[in-house]
Amino acid sequence: MHPRIAVVSLWAEDVEAQAEFYRTVLGLKALKQRHGKPHFDVGGVRLAIVQGRPVDAVTPTPSRFPVIVLEVDDLDEAIDRLKEHGVRRPWGTGHDARSRWVMFRDPGGNLVELLQEEGDEG
Questions:
Q1: pLDDT tens digits, residue range 30-68?
Q2: How far is residue 12's CA from residue 100's CA, in Å, rounded to a whole number?
Q3: What are the chain's domains?
Q4: How many CB atoms lie within 10 A of CB 15?
Q5: Phi/psi at 70 (nearest 5 deg)?
Q6: Most buried among 14, 18, 52, 83, by the most CB within 10 A?
Q7: 93 by DSSP, 3-state: which?
């Protein structure tokens, strides 16, 4: 048995606004809706937007940890796109010896991170 991730689901009270965010701001490719839910292709894994209210973890360690991390080729380009759409990035851009990232909340309140590994183009 070799399990693979097939679908990751994110909660949203306003499913259409959330789907528009992932389509327009993050540029994800929309797939055919399944079971009445918007789906997107993320490197061969489906991302589903599901009706519901996201709730942050209680006393998480670390206190800020994203619910989903999307790898990008050019973080600066992705940040410019976030800025164009007025997406707040309250923690700025982080980095370590191997990568750079930015975290923000999507319209549903999910904490999302965009990550660029060092050595990638950009």
A1: 999 988 899 999 999 999 999 999 888 888 888 888 889
A2: 27
A3: 7-51+62-117 (3.10.180.10)
A4: 20
A5: -110, 125
A6: 18
A7: strand
